[in-house]
Amino acid sequence: MPSKIPQQAVLTNEFTTNFITTCKDWLDVNGLAKGNLEKKRDDNEEEERLKTESKLPGHDIHGFDNEIKSLQHFLLDQKVRREFKSLVIVGEYGVGKTALCQKIFNDEAVKSVYAPRVWVSMENKESKEGLDGKICVLKKILKGLGVEELILETISTDAKQEFKDNEEVASNQEAGEIDRETEKEKELSALLYALHLNLRWKKYLIVFDDVRENDNWDEKLDAKLKEDEKWGKYLSDGFPKGSGGRVIYTTRDENLAKNLVAQKHEIHRLWPLSDHLSVWKIYDAVVKDKQKESPRNDKKCIDELMNKSRGLPLAARLLAERDPVFVDDEVGPVGSTHGQTDSSNRQPSNQASS
Question: I need a surface site. Which of 120, 125, 233, 261 has the fewest CB within 10 A?
Answer without folding.
Answer: 125
